[in-house]
Automatic annotation (TrEMBL):
InterPro entries named among the record's database cross-references: AB_hydrolase_1 (IPR000073), AB_hydrolase_fold (IPR029058)
Native source organism of the sequence: Anaerosporobacter mobilis DSM 15930
Protein name (record): Pimeloyl-ACP methyl ester carboxylesterase
Domain AB hydrolase-1, residue spans: 63-165
Gene3D superfamilies in UniProt: alpha/beta hydrolase (3.40.50.1820)
């Protein structure tokens, strides 16, 4: 009798904790995404096979597509400053990749080829002409692969703060697959996701990525928090896929094969950028490089004027 009573109490305690946890997570998603910071003018949705994809189009001239980094808190909002500067001379497109920002976030495993197909379809169906790509961070693999498979739809390529080839070549192992399953779970996974993209953790991360901490404004932090939390717990699926290397791809062959003009630019404080430049140039000696001063991990936020100047020179 006592055993049954203890079991019942334990069960009720577990149910209560679980219910409280679920409620807390729902409140976090609600309050994190209520500010509506991600709206940009001249925006629309592209109906794609895996859901609606948010994009913007501004200006007139040679088309440029800006692709954000593979980070669950990033979106087209990253390019707010760049758009206003580039639209004077270019037709500037931005896109929230599927699983990011204001785009739909299906509960699935996200891979490099998924994004490659999205960008290919977007250029073919929306832009409808040869396009220049500016890719941030890990989205380098997307730009290179799109160009390698479909050279007729890509003109020039620019990559900003590209990680090392070794980083991008990593693939999931057995432990990664186990951890992925855990972090996709409804309670534990969602709680960990909300912790990683909380105001405190995200603010510290962003400040560590820049030369001058005052560069990180409150509105920018709120935009990153909102981008990570729109669509509720479905937001964690893309984060988990990135975290455990499902979005990575070996780009060695693509680098050697591409004949398009390729430009690499990076913040002067970006870790090991000289070594990173060298390993890419060993595979493709025609690559051109440039440094963005007074910047580190977020040069499009820290020094957008100089980045725009490089885009104007190269593209």
């Amino acid at each position: 009798m006592k055993k049954n009573k203890k079991f019942s109490i334990a069960l009720l305690a577990i149910l209560a904790i679980t219910t409280i946890n679920i409620c807390i997570n729902k409140l976090i998603f609600y309050f994190s995404s209520k500010h509506e910071k991600l709206y940009l003018p001249n925006s629309n949705y592209f109906e794609w096979r895996f859901g609606q994809v948010y994009y913007t189009k501004n200006g007139q001239g040679t088309p440029i597509l800006l692709i954000h980094d593979l980070d669950a808190s990033q979106s087209s909002y990253e390019f707010k400053s760049l758009i206003s500067k580039l639209e004077k001379n270019y037709t500037v497109y931005t896109i929230d990749l599927i699983g990011f920002g204001k785009s739909d976030k299906p509960k699935m495993t996200y891979t490099n080829f998924l994004f490659v197909q999205l960008i290919t379809d977007f250029i073919t169906s929306v832009i409808k002409q040869k396009t220049n790509l500016v890719c941030i961070g890990k989205s380098t693999t997307i730009g290179l692969t799109v160009c390698n498979y479909n050279p007729d739809i890509i003109d020039k390529l620019m990559f900003v703060n590209t990680p090392s080839i070794r980083t991008l070549n990593r693939v999931p192992n057995k432990n990664n697959k186990i951890n992925k399953t855990l972090l996709e779970s409804s309670i534990i996974g969602t709680s960990i996701f909300n912790l990683l993209y909380s105001n405190t953790w995200l603010s510290k991360k962003l400040i560590s990525q820049v030369v001058e901490p005052t560069t990180i404004k409150r509105n920018y932090i709120l935009s990153r928090i909102e981008a990570a939390h729109l669509s509720g717990e479905a937001s964690k699926y893309v984060d988990v896929s990135i975290r455990y290397y499902y979005t990575n791809l070996n780009i060695t062959h693509a680098l050697k094969s591409i004949n398009n003009s390729i430009y690499f630019v990076t913040g002067e404080g970006y870790s090991n950028y000289k070594e990173i430049f060298n390993e890419y140039m060993e595979l493709n000696p025609s690559i051109e490089t440039a440094i963005i001063t007074n910047s580190k991990g977020l040069p499009w936020i820290e020094n957008p004027n100089q980045l725009c100047n490089y885009i104007s020179i190269f593209i």
